[in-house]
Design a protein that fits this description.
The structure is a single chain. The chain is an alpha+beta fold and about 130 residues long. About 20% of the residues lie in helices and about 40% in strands. The protein has one domain: S-adenosylmethionine decarboxylase (4-Layer Sandwich), CATH 3.60.90. It is built from three helices and seven strands. The protein has a seven-stranded antiparallel β-sheet, covered by helices on one side. Helix 2 packs antiparallel against helix 3. The protein is globular.
Length: about 130
Amino acid sequence: MDYDLANPLGREFTLILRGVERNDLANFEAIKRAISEAARAEGMSVLKFGINENKNNGTTIVGILNRSHILVHTFPEFRAMYVSMYTSKGPREGQSMVRIFTKYVPHTEVIVTDRRVDLLASSGTLAKLSY
């Protein structure tokens, strides 16, 4: 049997966009396009989308990738979007996701965290990056 072996070393990027207009938070097709473009830029593709829509209290959209994900939560009451991606594809993984979402989603403030994850160690190492 042929398996695509995963790398036990990965990265988890978290992106918080603040000052996002309600219309941009409710534009699910644009968010799905951003997820798809970010996945392609990382050398992956979206296998499936999942959407849990609640127009009054925000929405969750997940792009399921091969052994990875890109997850978006919207918070219209705070004019904010939370994006996360886990991948173990290579040394620059996740950076394209940050670049694409900050480019295509209008915002006034951005917070990025980059957490290196070792699936075999007892804990990961946190590192803050600025973009």
